[in-house]
């Protein structure tokens, strides 16, 4: 029969909404949501509690536009660091900016990324996840949809969405009958080439517009080490092992 171990609320807040929760390897919970501040606007709030419900740290975030700010998703890595994404209002115009922040296991801010839309519209982060290699993936919305990936630790100087995708890794790898080949979503038709160790073209892989990748049939492809060569939006290459 289910039973309640503990419960917790932020009693000092005027209002609080939980939007995303993650639990790390030690049983600590990290909750990301929104709280109404004393000015009546929403702020991002991130709270970490141990497995007994005791608060370890809390962070409250407000954009410089004195508007509403929202957390969308939270994740943690193998070291207990916390990653939170969402949207903040940095201008009086009411446009939202992409917001991504890394907290250490003890709640210190390691880094923050904020990206505005150059056209003046909204640009927001909507979801976040880490893969088994501790690569950080963030999805979001703009006038065009995008998918961004970060290799941890994050290199400095990243200020454009188009450069956030550092790795384009096929999955699974090694592969047997089929493989997922990722692309950076774009309004233009994209393609890449699968070539063998001698540089011979095996097949050209076409990706529909706005798609984040395609499944490629590997039946008939001999076992070996291959390269996936991307031509745009940036020249990249990935290794693929076919078994």
What does this structure look like?
- The protein is mostly beta strands.
- The protein folds into two domains: 16-163, TolB, C-terminal domain (Neuraminidase, 6 Propeller), CATH 2.120.10; 178-242, Immunoglobulin-like, CATH 2.60.40.3080.
- The protein has no helices and 17 strands.
- It has strands spanning 16-23, 29-36, 42-49, 55-61, 70-76, 82-89, 96-103, 109-115, 124-130, 135-141, 146-151, 178-182, 190-195, 201-207, 213-217, 224-230, 236-242.
- Strands 1-2-3-4 form a four-stranded antiparallel β-sheet, with no helix packed on it.
- The radius of gyration is 21 Å and the shape is flat.
- It starts with 15 loop residues before the first strand and ends with a strand.
- Mean pLDDT is 76; it is low at 1-7 and 151-166.
Outline of the structure:
The chain has 243 residues and is mostly beta strands. Helix content is 0%, strand content 49%.
Output the CATH class name of the largest domain: Mainly Beta
Q: By CATH's scheme, which homologous superfamily of the largest domain applies? A: TolB, C-terminal domain
Q: From the helix content, strand content and strand pairing, which structural class follows? A: mainly beta
| Count of separate structural domains | 2
Say how many strands there are.
Answer: 17
Helix share bin: under 10%
Taking the alpha carbons of the first and last residues, their distance comes to 47 Å
Mean pLDDT: 76
CATH structural architecture of the largest domain: 6 Propeller
Percent in strands: over 45%
Task: Please describe the biggest sheet, giving its number of strands, its sense, and whether it closes into a barrel.
Answer: 4 strands, antiparallel
CA gyration radius, whole angstroms: 21 Å
Shape: flat
Q: Any low-confidence stretches, pLDDT <50, length ≥5?
A: 1-7, 151-166
Write the CATH fold name of the largest domain.
Neuraminidase
Number of helices: 0
- What is the H/E string? EEEEEEEEEEEEEEEEE
Order of neighbouring strands in the sheet with most strands = 1-2-3-4
